[in-house]
Amino acid sequence: MFVVILDATKFHVTVMNIMNTFEISELPALIISEKPIDIERPNVRDTIVLKKGAIDRLIERGKVQDFLVNLPIWLPRVI
Length: 79
Description:
Distance between the termini: 11 Å
Number of helices: 3
Helix content: 40-55%
Structural class: mainly alpha
Strand order of the largest sheet: 1-2
Strand content: 5-15%
Mean pLDDT: 85
Order of helices and strands: HEEHH
C-alpha cells in the first residue's frame, strides 16, 4: 500500500488532474492502491477512493484509527 500526500497550493495542476481522474470534487480525499499511482497519468484501476464526506463520517464516529489500522488486512482482498 502506498500513501502520497499532495499539497494543492504547491502542485495545483497535478492535484487537479488527480481530482478530475478520480472524480473528487473536494479535499481531503484518500486514494488507496496496492501499487504506486502515476501522478502524471493516474489510472483509477485497482483503487478505492474515500471522498471528503466518507472521511468526515469516519471522523464523526471516531473510526478513523480503526479504519487505518485495518487497511493492510482487507486491502488485498478488495482491490
